[in-house]
Amino acid sequence: MEIATTVAAVRERVRQWHHERLRIAFVPTMGNLHAGHVSLIEAAARHGDRFVASIFVNPMQFGPNEDFAHYPRTPREDERMLAAAGCSLMFLPDVAEIYPRGLEGSVRIDVPELSRILCGEFRPGHFEGVATVVAKLFNIVEPDMAVFGEKDYQQLTVIRRVVADLCMPVEIIAAPTVRESDGLAMSSRNQYLTAAERRIAPRIFQELGRAAARLASGDSDFADIEDAAARALEGAGFRPEYFSVRTRDLSLPRPDTRELVVLAAARLGRARLIDNAQVTR
Ligand code: PAF
Positive or negative, the Cα torsion across 164, 119, 39, 206? Predict the structure, then answer.
């Protein structure tokens, strides 16, 4: 596996692959790789002739009081995992390489209809940061396809919109959420949970399951489904931010909408957990 730290080095390698007509799959990450990332990597390896992974903790997507400074950084372990997974190129830029004019001087991508709802309401500027860095990474790596996890369902929806609206020739592949044996969705931020909180954390998945079962049985009392789940999470010790039933493109559903997604975000101690469940009825 090659390691590149500059845009120029990535471009040189990737242009050569394109010249050889090889298909390039890309997995953008913030590092601290776990089994959830491995599933994205496996999907990339299945779809492309070469696969590129980036490791970049993107300051633009963190709010001033969020965990940018403390976000777990494990580049050596990440390198080992990527090499073992057959990664062709690991891109490990520093902040100045991605934002040469600083964060303030950078062009930003806004996705108005999707960025201020759900997580966007609680993390102002977050999706602008995600959309901007992903667009930059796509322009650097020029992949044929890129893989994102369904765990970050709103992020996946934002990225699909960026790609469609900016006419980017990149196929977006969604990989299913990888869970611990008790249902907790894998996330680097699960490390922030204490042992007691870790025991409670799967409740978010259980409440999503309960809501999904009500919806699947034909129940369309969305407000009651959302309130019941939020109250149950609060009772269990969470501070819920939202529990929301949406259409698959994140607008508000009608009673007869058949393709739904239920999304939840809740704080538990120092951790902010998000998860979702898709329902077809
Ligand atoms: O999901 C993530 O890890 C990040 O939001 C991403 C897509 C790598 C952009 O920084």
Answer: negative
Please say whether the structural domain 188-280 has been given the CATH code 1.20.1440.80. Answer: no
133 within ligand 1 shell (Cβ under 6 A): yes
Q: For ligand 1, is residue 29 a contact (CB within 6 Å)?
A: yes
Report domain extents, the chain.
2-175, 188-280
In 3-state terms the chain splits into helix, strand, coil percentages (rounded to 5) of 45, 20, 35
The secondary structure of 101-129 as a DSSP string is THHHHS-----HHHHSSTHHHHSTTHHHH
Q: Looking at residue 278, what is its pLDDT?
A: 98
pLDDT score at 209: 98
* Cβ of 134 below 6 Å from ligand 1: yes
Query: Looking at the domain 2-175, which fold is it?
Result: Rossmann fold (3.40.50)
Place of tokens 């977006």: 172
Residue 64: per-residue pLDDT: 94
Whose CA is closest to atom 5 on ligand 1?
130
pLDDT of res. 7: 98
Low-confidence ranges of the chain (pLDDT < 50): none
